[in-house]
Specification:
It is a single chain. With 198 residues, the chain is mainly alpha-helical. It contains five helices and no strands. The radius of gyration is 24 Å and the shape is elongated. It starts with a helix and ends with a helix.
Amino acid sequence: MELPDPVRQRLGNFSRSMFSDSNRTGPEYTEGPDDDMLSSLTLQMSLYFNTYFFPLWWVSSVVMLHMKYSVLPDYYKFIVVTIIILVTLIEAIRLYLGYMGNLQEKVPELAGFWLLSLLLQLPLILFLLFNEGLKSLPMEKAVHIIFILFLTFQVATAFLALKKMVNQLATRFHLQDFDQLSANREDTRRVRSSIEEI
């Protein structure tokens, strides 16, 4: 299942502007092969453990909500139920984008994962953890802290993986552009030499 083209292009443009190294003036030539794996093992391990932790987080959040539901004001009941539903939907999309972006080295998907983690999941879980009106129970605080640790680690490692992928893709693009320029010069030389012979 691919992202729609407009979304993919926008995420690609965003990631190129956000994660590319603007200090470089030209391509960096490396000694190693051009087909290096750019996937982040630490990010992949974190995503793997997060897929097993999330059901535990969800069950404990729902059980804790059930236990304190009668003492919460009506507006907090609505807010907490809405946040749990949103976090569940976002987490499914976020983990999918993280797996696809990291394993298949797709920059737009990994950028979408990074944005969902940083701009949606992290603030929602921080709200659940630090809002005193929610009357958080100790078990609830513990699972929220673990979830925040997962999120912050994934945001940091995804940023580094994106930066590495974007720089590698920019280098490949510059090298392809250089190769095309060299091929065009050789074609121009051949045409000139054939014209001179005529």
